[in-house]
Amino acid sequence: SGTSIEHLAKGQAIYSSSCTKCHSIDPPEKYTKAEWNKILPRMSKKAKLTASDSEILGVYIFARAKEEASK
Predict the structure, then answer these.
(1) What is the mean pLDDT of the segment spanning 36-60?
(2) Residue 50: which of 58, 61, 62 has the closest Cα?
(3) Fewest Cβ atoms nearer than 10 Å: which of 12, 18, 37, 50?
(4) Mean pLDDT within 57-69
(5) Which whole-number Å values give the CA distances from 67 to 3, 12, 14, 46, 47, in the listed order?
(6) Does pLDDT of 47 surpass 80?
């Protein structure tokens, strides 16, 4: 549970609809999980996402994010 196809699809929909209201979006793979840990709380708040949508967005982002920065 948590990384079901439905969650990933809903997370992608939230990412492409909510995040593009204010700016263009980069592919989740552009940032590491650590970087997303700093980005997501701030941006979820700005986008006024519900706790549930924020959690689903996180599932999608972390499923695609880089593990660590490339050296």
Answers:
(1) 96
(2) 58
(3) 50
(4) 91
(5) 17, 19, 22, 25, 25
(6) yes
Using CA atoms, how far apart are residues 17 and 47, in angstroms rounded to an integer?
A: 10
d(Cα 30, Cα 36) in Å, to the nearest integer?
10
pLDDT band at 1 (very low <50, low <70, confident <90, very high): very low
52: Cβ contacts below 8 Å, ≥ 6 apart: none
Place of tokens 């929909």: 13
Instruction: Give the total residue count for the chain.
Output: 71
CA dist 8 → 53, 59, 71 (Å): 11, 7, 29
The answer to whether 19 and 11 are in contact (CB under 8 A) is no
Please give the angle made by the CA atoms of 40, 60 and 13, to the nearest 5 degrees: 95
